[in-house]
Amino acid sequence: MLFDTHTHLDAAQFDEDREEVIARAVEQGVTRMINVGFNRETIPSTMKLAETYDFIYAAVGWHPQDAITMKDGDLEWIAELCEHKKVVAIGEIGLDYYWDTSPKDVQHEVFRKQIGLARSLNMPIVIHNRDAHEDVIRILREEKASEVGGVMHSFSGSWETAKMCLDLGFHISFGGPITFKNAKQPKEVLKQVPNDRLLIETDSPYLTPHPFRGKRNESSYVRLVAEMAAELKGISLEELAEITTKNALERFGI
């Protein structure tokens, strides 16, 4: 009973075999997935997946890399979609200082607007944070994101950053990087995250876990993430799956 809390099954990388990819995930014990739509192109395809499969849910939001493309009316569009019974979060939203595709001030504005929307709708948020730990935490605090909480997706920060996120009421989600041999920090952070705030994900088709690193990721590989997380926590795979699935169901109100 595994829950992949962050995937992009609508990505072009799956155009040739999407149904088979989803079937493989089910065969590996993945009972639920959250597909994430993050811009004008991926939000409609995400909604279609959620409406097609009972066990696929949707998160919708505007990615920081695409912040500069957000137009008047897009926030209202997201708000309308949040009324859909399969939409369980606003995201992925946040800051990305690695890819220079949207100016920082534009990213900040779009991030703040979406936190405000989440608070008005009482929806959890899914945070994308790349090389922007300090500003992400500051904006989450200033915009009172603790009122709704959410998920720190594909967490890559230090334990000090994780503690600040936990204090704000967020869950911490880990993906393929915890299986990398040289990934000392994510492994150490995962060990310290309280069991009741832990989530797992793939972020497929990206961040493929070992031993498939370098190839296309898919939701069935969340089992590899779960196996490593269970090993790091010193518990069985079954217990890890039960804990993280329960956390996800509660966090997303499913």
Spatially, the strands of the biggest sheet line up as 1-2-3-4-5-6-7-8
* Cα distance spanning the termini: 15 Å
**Alpha carbon gyration radius:** 17 Å
Which CATH class is shown? Alpha Beta
Kindly state the mean pLDDT as a whole number?
A: 98
Secondary-structure element sequence? EHEHEHEHEHEHEHEHH
Q: What is the total domain count?
A: 1
Second CATH tier, the architecture: Alpha-Beta Barrel
The number of distinct β-strands equals 8
Shape: globular
Fill in the CATH topology: TIM Barrel
CATH superfamily: Metal-dependent hydrolases
Largest sheet: 8 strands, parallel
Structural class: alpha/beta
* DSSP helix fraction: 40-55%
Give unreliable regions as ranges: none
Please state roughly what percent of the residues sit in beta strands, choosing from under 5%, 5-15%, 15-25%, 25-35%, 35-45% or over 45%.
15-25%
Please tally the helical runs, counting DSSP H or I stretches of 4 or more residues. 9
InterPro entries: DNase_TatD-rel_CS, Metal_Hydrolase, TatD-like, TatD/YcfH-like
Protein name: TatD family deoxyribonuclease
Pfam families: TatD_DNase
Binding site for a divalent metal cation 2: 128, 153
